[in-house]
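#lab-general

N.A. 3:47 PM
ok so I finally got the sequence cleaned up, no stray characters, all 205 residues accounted for. can someone with queue access submit it? mine expired

B.Y. 3:52 PM
send it over

N.A. 3:53 PM
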Amino acid sequence: MTNILVFGASITWGAWDKEGGWVSRLRKFIDEKNISDSDYNCMIYNLGISGDNTNYLLERLKNEVKARLSEEETIIIFSIGTNDSAASKSEVSVSIDKFKENLKKIINIAKKHTDKIIILGLTKVDESKTNPIPWNPSVRYINENIKRYNLELKRLAEKENLNYINLFDLLGKEDLEDGVHPNSEGHEKIFQIIKDFLIGKEIIE
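B.Y. 4:20 PM
back already:
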């Protein structure tokens, strides 16, 4: 059996999508293959939590992975960083240095259990709706900050020889429900990119 563990925040969880987000769409795709092919055995776990950043992910990662390890194969996908980059006044939620430190610890934990680790790049926001965000006027999501954190994700993936999927320019304003979270069309675009990547790398068939 192959277990795919997907860690992230509200976009991973599937906010604003009536079908449950890109992870739910990937699970449906995999479940259909499980049903049609008796030799195919793959499970996907959505471990996204709204508001998560690298500080919070570090606190739960060991236990979450341990509880879902497969004896045959475990694949871990990380989609984290947007909330780290969120600005309140002149400071970001998690400094870029702390972000890099957290990422190294996260990858070291994951590597103890698998060498199949995938890093997802961050998606841009619509700053006309996120600077500031309506539900918390003291917080801003800014593409300049997101781009910096996204670059660190790419650098880490290259340094650690991990798979990296660039999503930064994937979504337009029309694909964002509230400026941050993808709508159904946006989640479909993310799903298609990730599905094609997994098939291309022969991670899933």
